[in-house]
Specification:
The complex is a heterodimer of chains A (about 120) and B (about 110).
Chain A lengths: L3 E3 L3 E4 L5 E3 L1 E3 L5 E7 L6 E6 L6 E2 L6 E7 L2 E6 L8 E8 L10 E2 L3 E5 L1
Parallel strand pairs in A: 2-12
Antiparallel strand pairs in A: 1-4, 3-9, 5-6, 5-10, 6-7, 8-9, 10-11, 10-12
Chain B lengths: L2 E3 L3 E5 L4 E8 L6 E6 L6 E6 L3 E5 L2 E6 L4 E6 L8 E8 L5 E3 L3 E6 L1
Parallel strand pairs in B: 2-11
Antiparallel strand pairs in B: 1-3, 3-8, 4-5, 4-9, 6-7, 7-8, 9-10, 9-11
The chains are: A mainly beta (about 120), B mainly beta (about 110).
Amino acid sequence: DVKVTQSSRYLVKRTGEKVFLECVQDMDHENMFWYRQDPGLGLRLIYFSYDVKMKEKGDIPEGYSVSREKKERFSLILESASTNQTSMYLCASSSKDRAGANVLTFGAGSRLTVL
Amino acid sequence: GQNIDQPTEMTATEGAIVQINCTYQTSGFNGLFWYQQHAGEAPTFLSYNVLDGLEEKGRFSSFLSRSKGYSYLLLKELQMKDSASYLCAALDSNYQLIWGAGTKLIIKP
């Protein structure tokens, strides 16, 4: 059973703390993504990566950074957490399917609360 | 701008049929996805349409009209386990996904 595993399901952090969200996939996918999901909004792309050590900004990269040192692992870093970063964070991976249309496999999510 | 619209919430009865609509406006178009997300769980892929018409997969079907910027997901013979949010997402000319806010489907016995 293929999987995207997010190491922490629930985290509570204080304003200003550095936060690491880890994501590992076992499907040998090239592409990995970090989204945040908030009520009443569509998924918003934070960062994505098409290969090891490569990263691209998504729609809302401010306040976040990422690291992809190994193909299977994509980490999201909040350098100094703020209350407006309280959200559900979803990691996803994909490989090319049907002429560029990538089917995403998601992790179960990490719910972060910043106090 | 780019935009996806879908109803916020729908209610249907077990055993019935429900249609969840999605309209999109994107810069270019390379297909439309539907994902299912149960509460507290990962979204899972349901369907992908790039050509006009209806694609059927068991109890679930997905329809696309490119000229109208419109898609729907049709769920037949509803079961309680179909209670979930259904996410519509369009692929734009840069192969970036534009997501709708999701439709929460409530199934009543």
